[in-house]
Design goal:
By secondary structure, the chain is an alpha+beta fold. The protein has 2 helices and 6 strands; from the N terminus they run βββαββαβ.
Amino acid sequence: MKYLKYKGVTVNALGFPVFSSNKKSTIKYGTPGRMYYQYRRFDFVFKRTAPKDLVVMYDIPSDMRKERDWLRYHLKKFDYTMVQKSVWVGPSPLPKDFLNYLKKIGLFDQLRTLKLAKPYSKGDRDM
């Protein structure tokens, strides 16, 4: 029986999707050589009273958008405040296993951290 394709899905003559139990017929799309991760989640929680005295800056290329969004998600989760799109300030230090994971997925080289002399507050404009 001949099947048609509609928007990347195999359909029959009536337009209904056809599902196959044959594993060899599945086609995987994506850029060859690109690694896909099931990114790890971190549950580390800083105390609410912890001073925000660490600046995290990064410059991650646009082809690593998924990794950049993962990093932003975790900075928000760690109670960091966005100063600019790629500049965040929050409590220190970052967890060791988080930093080791950044090395593993290749983001550690694009990341810079600075320790502030006095804690950051939203009202301060003089850093």
